[in-house]
Design a protein that fits this description.
Blueprint: H1 7-32, H2 40-58, H3 63-84, H4 90-109, H5 111-114, E1 126-128, E2 131-133, H6 136-158, H7 161-171, H8 173-178, H9 183-209, H10 219-232, H11 239-253, H12 261-275, H13 280-283
Antiparallel strand pairs: 1-2
Helix pairs in contact: 1-6, 1-7, 1-9, 1-10, 1-11, 2-3, 2-4, 2-9, 3-9, 7-9, 10-11
Length: 287
């Protein structure tokens, strides 16, 4: 079992579960809703910094930080969605990319709060009833439970009446609107939910590492997360699983390549997308 694995493998598995939560939300808006949103890393960062700052300075065992992370991310996503989700295609992608760029600038320059380029350090672990969840195994179990609930919940949502409406909007927005579906409202719900899930993952991320830095949440990270949805399998409930594994495990596997790590990583992604255009999940006939 993974829970009995060495600490290093447990850390990698924990990061896979954290990014699974991010990609599950992104798959909802991109895979099923057909909207390319390049802001997942920004909401991941909002969750990490909001919880890290509040927990470090005010305590609360991380739960006050979680509430703040969800509130800030959800409100930001809703306000962005009002103008952005009326756009389509590359225009929507550019609008959300702009938000991620602004968030990155704030993370870097709000030095007194975020620690600036050096990052936010010494973030306390999550605690429940005075018990700190700071060991590799307890935290892995927590992430496994959260990722499992998120995956199961989104699968039920996709099969619900709302999920069918979202898929209809993703397939053909004009046709969906002609049948009486409120396309802007449908897309807004998906976008806000994806942002909230990313902030939840950010909460787990900062309390897992006790640290976060701006480069983790930059524009490049958002673009790479979108690529991972394609690699794993868009509009497939298993897609985020394989996407998260690729996002975390590929860089670790290629770390020995030293100066050629980024080149090797890019080549691996190109090969994966060319060989498996419908994603790894479709290749394995998983639905």
């Amino acid at each position: 079992m993974v829970v009995l694995a060495p600490p290093f493998l447990l850390d990698v598995a924990t990061l896979v579960l954290i990014y699974l939560v991010v990609l599950a939300g992104l798959n909802l808006i991109m895979g099923y809703g057909g909207q390319i949103a390049l802001s997942s890393a920004a909401f991941l960062g909002i969750g990490a910094y909001a919880s890290g700052i509040l927990t470090k300075h005010f305590g609360g065992g991380g739960w006050l930080g979680l509430a703040a992370a969800i509130a800030i991310a959800g409100t930001s996503a809703f306000l962005i969605s009002l103008p952005a989700l009326r756009l389509r295609g590359h225009y929507l992608a550019m609008a959300t990319l702009g938000f991620n760029a602004i968030a990155s600038v704030v993370f870097v320059h709000a030095t007194e709060l975020t620690g600036g380029p050096n990052g936010l350090t010494d973030v306390p672990p999550i605690s429940v009833a005075g018990y700190a969840i700071d060991g590799a195994r307890p935290f892995y179990v927590l992430c496994w439970l959260i990722a499992g609930v998120v995956t199961f919940g989104l699968r039920r949502l996709v099969d619900s009446r709302y999920g069918r409406a979202l898929r209809a909007v993703g397939a053909n927005e004009d046709a969906a609107s002609a049948t009486g579906i409120d396309a802007p409202r449908t897309k807004t719900i998906a976008f806000v939910l994806a942002a909230v899930l990313a902030s939840l993952a950010g909460w787990l991320y900062v309390h897992h590492l006790g640290f976060c830095s701006p480069e983790t949440f930059d524009v490049g990270a958002s673009i790479l997360l979108v690529v991972m949805i394609v690699v794993g399998g868009s509009a497939n409930p298993w897609g985020p699983v394989f996407g998260a594994i690729a996002y975390v495990a590929l860089p670790e596997a290629l770390r020995s390549a030293l100066d050629f790590e980024l080149l090797a990583f890019g080549i691996c992604l190109v090969v994966l997308i060319q060989r498996f255009p419908r994603g790894v999940a479709a290749l394995l006939h998983l639905r």
